[in-house]
Amino acid sequence: MLGWSSGRRTPAAEDTMKTLLLALAVLTAPAGARAEMPLCAPPSCERAALPKGLHWLTNETDPTFADPRAQKGGTLHDYMDSFPLTLRQVGPDSNGSFRGYLDHLTMGLVDVQPNTRRLTPALATHWAFGRDHRTMYFELDPKATWSDGRPITAYDFSFALDFYRSKNIVAPWYNEYYTKHIEKVVVYDDRTFAIVVPQPHSDRDLILNYAFAPLPRHYYKDVGPNWVQEYQWKIAPTDGPYQITTVDMGRRIVFTRVKDWWARDLRYYKNRYNVDRVVFDVIRNPDVAWEYFKRGKLDGFTVTRPGLWHDRATGEIFDKGWVKKLWFYTDAPLPDFGMYLNMDDPLFKDRNVRLGFQYAMNVDKVTRRVLHGDYERLRGITEGYGAYTNREIPERPFSVAKADHYLALAGWKTRGPDGILVKDGRRLTATVTYGAPSQTKRLVVLKQEAAKAGIDLRLQLLDEAASFKTMLEKKHQIAYMSWGTFLLPSYWGQYDSVNAHKTQTNNFCNIADPKLDLWIHRYRTDFEDAKRQRDARMVQRLVFDSACYIPLWKVPYFRSAYWRWVRFPKPAATRLSDDPFAYPFEYGLYWIDAKAKAETEAAMRSGKSFPPSTVIDKTFKAG
Predict the structure, then answer these.
(1) 90 lies in a domain?
(2) Residue 556 in contact with residue 304, Cβ under 8 Å?
(3) Under DSSP, is residue 569 helix (H, G, I), strand (E, B) or coil?
């Protein structure tokens, strides 16, 4: 990171004059215009003089990761399996998969260079941190504009805070989060402001978790009681590279590249977001979508699952080189996929029982038999987080002998006629609750192998919502699921004792360990990255020692099939990338080669072949 010379700051007298002129403009504006320029009003927003002595940071030295050969133009054809219930990003019915596209198109104050994981400029050219560890300061890029041409200002951030606290958006989570976790916005001028949070955090934690995005105050004007209905299908201005331009209800949504997007020539955004349009057609059946792809009506397809990669991504279009395959290893945070043993259940109060279950799960056989040997064994929580990951956590391999040993210590010593252990007239039975039919084959193998260790696993398949509800209400014995990932690890919700022994929390193990609490608290309050990384590794060790979580498998890669006119850089993706056809707006590194498309379509008519292409890229594969 580079320091920002204090000589670059606007003189204080000029700041004061800008403030007075802005206030005068608001006070003298016509009534209709005033609604577009809300005053900065307490308690969510304050006006103040910028503190002296701030150490401003930026980063214009990290390597770029897009390809200068990228061509602008063309259309990427993709699909979604259902039509969104709203175009809003908040409020009722907004928390669906479609919102992920909108979230990827929302720029933040800073970004993360995906290969170095260092902060880079985005909406803000520079940033600084207060000595209180609660305050972040930002200087907005003077070029930053909404897609309708209006400038992005500090007041768009103060408005956003008021917006997210409003009951009229009917979004209780946002109301609570932005009330409890964000204290206020302090405006110094239209380009300079601060975000203040109630509790101290490390600088990186502050900026990654609490530096929220702006909202176009001139567009929303007022958040009235009918806001949810009024903005159900309206298309809000964006600060990102694409704007929704077509909404064909129930059938199709089209995004078009913003003309003269303000960030198109910035160091870390140049040569990205190259196609003119991205078209999402609604295809509810993935098998039908696959047939569309094979006919060239979709440009790419996610084939990460073994059945797709090995069994379906074959045939003429691949043999003749019209379609290519990419297996790309990443080094990104991985979901904690596994079994969470409910320690409030009488069976799992005994650590020896939990250890017995650890050694009774034949994860390797599932990966070999069901997953073609493609998936890898997960060792514990927090994999893929660089120095935050404890690489010394060992595996607990399948071992009937070790399972017998620990279960015998818990009093389970006698086998019944069917081979299942019996104690005091009770069979060793435990129910696994899960919510996806696609997981049944995997669980059946685990069930069969666990029986060798004298355990009767019973499989309880519920629909996704009912499964998660059962876990939230702590009615499960074993929760089979995974948590999503963040740029930094998070432990408090899943493992702190304050969230144990109560419903509607994410502590599905119901673990309550004072020593673990201490290290979670240290992780949340230490301000130096090295200390927080140490804390995180200790949390992982203690969770491992508790044996309440059985890690299963990980997929540290994505796999794509795509028509040869879709081009990628070398390497094709970044350390943190996901599949570009599942998340086409994530980094936008691909482009359409018009010449190659015409060439390929002609070859399909004539039967001409190109060399088949399957690339396995291990550039970022973790050691």
Answers:
(1) no
(2) no
(3) coil
